[in-house]
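Internal QA ticket QA-208
Title: Verify multi-chain structure generation after dependency bump
Assignee: T.L.

Test input:
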Amino acid sequence: MFRIFRRRARADREFRDAQRASQALLQMHTETPWPDVLGSVAATAQDATEAAVARDFLPPYFRAPSRQDVAGFMMRWDQPLVIDGEVRECPECGAYRNWVVLCMRDDSVWLRCRAGHETRELGLDAAWYNRHSGPADRWHPTLEDGLRHLGY
Ligand SMILES: [Zn+2]
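Actual output:
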């Protein structure tokens, strides 16, 4: 009687130990499903997909040109340009509005009046230009082509 009880107790304990072990094993695989095999395959496939997306994101002719790709950027500035409290005037013809602002690759900023006089503006820099210009939406092979596009 006592022996049977002990045997059953041991069997129960062994059963519970085995159950705990199998649950621990099951939980381990649930939390980390084959990390060395499937994980790396999934990561590789994801990386390849991301690389393909990055490569196909925008064709080169749709990408905004960087500062190294172009001689400069230009935008219209129709209203009077006030720098340090002074309205800028063209030193040659006295025009004070309808500028084309040019930001060159060397970060210098130039003002061009309607008559085509160009003056370097030391009170402005590339950071100012970038704050006030929209994204470059068009590339022009020559300065004249860009001026024509801006209506000059
Ligand atoms: Zn002028």
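Spot checks passed. Residues 29-46 have pLDDT under 50 and may be disordered.
Status: verified.
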